[in-house]
Design a protein that fits this description.
heterodimer, A: 313 residues, mainly alpha, two-stranded antiparallel ribbon, two-stranded antiparallel sheet, 15 helices, 3% strand, disordered N terminus, B: 652 residues, mainly beta, 26-stranded antiparallel β-barrel, 26 strands, globular
Chain lengths: 313, 652
Amino acid sequence: MKHRSTLPLAPAALTAAILLAGAVAAGQTPTPTPTEAAAKVSSAQELPKCADCHTELVQAFASNPHARTPHGEKKPDPNDVCTTCHGDGTKHMEAGGDASLIHTLKGVAGAQDCLSCHAKTPGPHDSFATGVHANTATVNCLTCHSVHKSVAKSEHLLAKAPGALCATCHANQTASFQNKPYSHRLDRGGMTCLDCHGPHARRGEAVKMTVQGDLPCLNCHADLRGPFVFQHVSGSGGDCLSCHQNHGSNNPNMLQWARVDQLCLSCHSQTGGPKTYGSQPPSFHDLTLPRYRNCTTCHVAVHGSNVSPQLLK
Amino acid sequence: MRKTHRLLPFVLAPAAVLLCSALLRAQAIPFDIELGYRWVDVTGNDQMYRTQINDRPGLLLRSLNYTSQGPLGFLDTLHVDGSDIGAGPAGQFRLQAGQTNVFKLTFVWRETDLYSALPAFANPFLDEGIIPGQQTWNRSRNIYDATLELLPGKMITPLLGYTRNVYQGPGTTTYHVGGNEFLLNEQVQSVDQLYRVGLGFNYGPVKAGFTQGWRMYTWKDVAALSPGAGSGNFTRPILGQTITADAIVGTQNNKINTPVTNAWITGNLFGRLKLTGTYIKADGSNETKYVEADAGKFLSFEIARFFSGLGETVNSRSRTDYWRASARAELTLVQNVDLAGGWAENSRVLDGQALISTLFLNTVTYAGQSTGDLLREVTARTSVDDMTRVFDAGVTARMLGPFAVNAGWSQTQQNVTATPDAASIVIPGGQGGRFERRVNTWGGGASYSQSGLTLTADYHHDSADRPIFRTDYINRDRYNFRGVWNFKDFLKLGAFFRETHADDDIVEIGYSTKVREFEGNIEITLLKNMLTLRGSGGEFLTNRKILVRVPQDFDIVPTEQQEFGHNWEGGIHFQWDRLSLDGAYLWMNNNGSIPFTVDRVRVLTEYFFLQNLGLDFEWLQDKYNERVAFDQAGPLADYNGNRYYVGLHWKP
């Protein structure tokens, strides 16, 4: 198998270029760390700052998206954003750090503080008021997000990696990924729950669609998107989940049925009753012979074909 | 040859640059890297191991992470992370860089190795003890995605993006030709590219986005007769002649272009009414050329001839017009009580046609009379018109003390019109016509959370007037319960249950499905930040039934798919000074249509022998044991896969 080796280098080369430029620039004009900057201000003006006590917290906060969030035209300053969420800390400082005199964000009430900014800018498919994870005492912003103790590798300040985080409530689905022999590879370089699901989505829309309006399966399995001249399924006329399981499966190829012929015949039978979509195979398909029990031995282009009406190639 | 091995030095190069950067700035940087080597020891069915697990030996960049603290040159934010790059089977790399108010760049690369060689799948010779099946592949998928957002947070935000998805590699497949099926070697390469430009608008209470994309897709598939496969799957004579192939070569080239338009707008009126509208349009056009040349001894019942060769060309085109639109309103009635309602509709129209030209060489009648070459031309036309419309309405009361409740209703209307393709009709019925379906769904849920106890429950009932497919339900009930109790930092208990019943009342179809899953877990922290024990267990059940008409005698018989089993897991986390240990044992069994047992061991230890440098050891074991069942591989599928990883963990 030959591979073209140039393209995979792109991420590394791009990273290296940006980092090199950054490192050189950083070497020429050393930037004071937030703590250093805070210490300077503190000693010059004799006014205490959050960083005087919460040194590590403030230092780490410099890489936090909230520290870089512009407030109007004001350039963000990691030493000056604490009050945005925690309010005026003067009394807290005067009392020698009395924790009861500073506002902390906890539970659903704390989440309301988050929403005072974030509810103004949800995406078109998100809802914090009526969505699947609407802000409640059971599930709220602070259930999944941690502003100061997020996992470094996760986007959006998640408190844990997506798989472990979602497992907190969706243990059945996690068990399916972890235990069953055929499953999508989750985390550790593989996909995450968030590749397919929108945690802030509105009810009934918890599955993220592609930019082309398809199921998220086709983000990766783009070769199955079509359009095909001889389409097998399409929208109301079936989709990926008509035949496949999505998380983990006990069946090969993550099919809904263990036996391929039974899966196919569950639609491709005409037994009477109301007219249904799905043809009846002709009689030479002798299912007593193993040759015919795996329909895909011949009908190889089962997802759709451009050259064979019977999906034979 | 794995290309990611060659990629490793290039991914590690940033690490060196970062280190230089740190030295220049004379401060510690939040950098974290785990690099090592994995050994693999598999006994039993290696192909089954690779199909299910596919961890392979080699150099492995298990983890890479860097987040800048403060400005770094012209960047004031830079984040790089990666995991499992190298030996695979799935690795990813991500970069986020930006300057506040100026730009934000996100780049993601993900590689997945795809392997499948199932003993019991598409394998007519399983009864003879031959493995693996004839549908196999050993391919890779590389996805690159870059998005550049300019002037983030400003009133107008331009956006540029590019996604490239490359799927390629060898495999095996079969062709049915001349009365027999032949195993072919196949080489596939597909490239799916999506360019996109867009604008985001953010003006007071109104936000909007518009993106125009262009999808360009190419697929090339070359298949040729596998060496030694000329006898095909069927070795007995047909009408006195054994069907064999000397050569089969088929080449397919496919191009698809799809312009994609995406637009949305959302506005917040009076602080209590949120309106949202979305629109997607994606019209794809597909062009395919296929050429096949075969030689051998063949038979065709369609032309009632024997023949010694076949030349086939197919020129086909198809087009799809797709749009989706939605409108939605959310109204805050009183604080924390919201009403929501909306409409969504999508339409997909597919039109296709193919000119299939088949030249049968040296044809001979059943009686032995030579009739020369015979050309058959077939024009196939297909057409599908598919529309789905959804109305929904719901109410949510979010903060009734520790309670929250929601209730909703939706109606889904489906219409499918398919024109039967004369070229594909063998047995009339079911291949075309107009199908309509209406599904009403209502349901609701409630949650309670106080003093460490969280309970949630929801129920939905779906009621349809008729099926489109035989597996469409008429009635469906879905139940979901969750309970979690946290007792201080010591004990955490969880119980999770969900069940779905779906069936129809149509005696001629006799369809029913029952899916039930229960999972319970416990976590005990014996010594805070030092020793934690955890365990979980569950039960799953799936039972599908439907009547089918078997083709060989047209009898109507019941079929059934069963899955029933249990899973257990026990684990430990131990942390003491510079030593950490994570261990887990997982076991599950299935007593259904494919009876099997899975045993899994996960052990990871880490010891930091220097302040910033640790030694990692990982042992992963996966054992799969299948029991004998109809049409399954049984013990032929068994394997025991052990992986050992030794690496360094560096946190400067």
